[in-house]
């Protein structure tokens, strides 16, 4: 059962990533039927078997993302809520953290910022308690972005600085580039052009070995803009 489930779930993920959401939905709905067929008692709201609960937590999460992607928020909320409940029934803290992230992103998309923040904070709490470093990084980034989007640059900076320390410890170059860029943008928006320049230069140093000319040009343009600002202010 689990091998068949995993096969179709991965086929759904591949289809979703290739831009074929309908095939993804078909694969994931098959997984849901497969997992639901393992319920011991018809119409029992929650299975007793932990392995079945795990499968249901996973596939409801996938379907929640599908509906969220299509802005069908009521259906997305239903699937994410069920994913949380199944995960809680087997104490799957990692699954809970990931689903809380998805819910936070959903509320962010709906511009319900208080709910988005509460879900990101709940994810961060679980991630910190269990030392899920990747989920901590994601939560801090989401909280920083949320504060930035609302214009609270100082609050955003606090989250980004915490993320910087974490991803540096993790040696996650991709996330380090992102967070240093975010910090540079905050300095830029605050009119702190010298500090912004310093961080954009750090970003460029990290990007150069990767050889992505498009990304390198973006940062070089940002550096040039900051240098011009400094010249015009002297």
Please identify the structural class as seen in this structure: mainly alpha
Number of strands: 0
Mean pLDDT: 94
Count, helices: 11
Q: How would you sum up the major sheet? A: none
Unreliable sequence segments: none
Q: How much helix is in the residues?
A: over 70%
Order of helices and strands: HHHHHHHHHHH
The percent range for strand residues is: under 5%
- Quote the distance from N terminus to C terminus: 70 Å
Shape: elongated
- Rg, rounded, reads 21 Å
Summarize the structure.
Helix content is 82%, strand content 0%.
Could you please describe the fold and organization of this structure?
The chain is mainly alpha-helical and 234 residues long. Helix content is 82%, strand content 0%. It has eleven helices and no strands. It has helices spanning 2-17, 21-36, 50-69, 73-89, 93-109, 113-130, 133-149, 153-170, 173-189, 193-207, 213-232. The mean pLDDT is 94.
